[in-house]
Amino acid sequence: MTVPLAPPQTYSLDQYRQLEESAEDRHEYHDGQITPMTGGTLEHAKLISQLIFLFCLALQNTEFEVYGGDIRIWIPEQNRGLYPDLSIIAGEPLLTANRRDEVLNPCLVLEVLSSSTEAYDRGKKFRYYRSIPSLQDYLLVSQTEPLMEHYHRDEADRWILTPYSALEATLTLPTVNLEVALAQVYQGVTFPDNSL
């Protein structure tokens, strides 16, 4: 006799926010469903910390503020709450109902790719992010080779891809007036033997 699977529990947005305030781990919200965030590798953590450091250093005394993965991006059009690895906000953060953990207006979002999330980061998650009116730049960062893929929204609302695929390359982000060498981003990161 086969026991039918119970349908997944659906949470209201208020229930999710209450749970997230006291949760030890982070969870994304997907239109009533709660999805736990996966853990990362040493390379993943190192890349995020280096990117936060480099971006903070380059953007100090500007209108841009850099945030790590603890700030949730709320996307009302998609009814989703997502945690990017890094986000940048221009000017004052627009908050959801005066919450201090949920913002509406990133101009840049960055994800470090992993084998378990790469398809999602390139597909549905990018589609969700694209619906944010303030978002101008989406960065995907490989942890297995020196590769950063920069998607930029142009005046016609098209997303243009520029890949940077060598340690000698320099990433250019005109929205935040920033240039950073991939050699700095990947300094100290160990790649698998077959990546170079």
From TrEMBL:
InterPro entries: Nuclease_put_TT1808, Restrct_endonuc-II-like, Uma2. It comes from the Bacteria. It comes from Prochlorothrix hollandica PCC 9006 = CALU 1027. PANTHER family: GLR1098 PROTEIN, RESTRICTION ENDONUCLEASE DOMAIN-CONTAINING PROTEIN-RELATED. Residues 14-179 form the Putative restriction endonuclease domain. SUPFAM superfamilies: Restriction endonuclease-like (SSF52980). Gene3D superfamilies: tt1808, chain A. This is Putative restriction endonuclease domain-containing protein. Pfam families: Uma2.
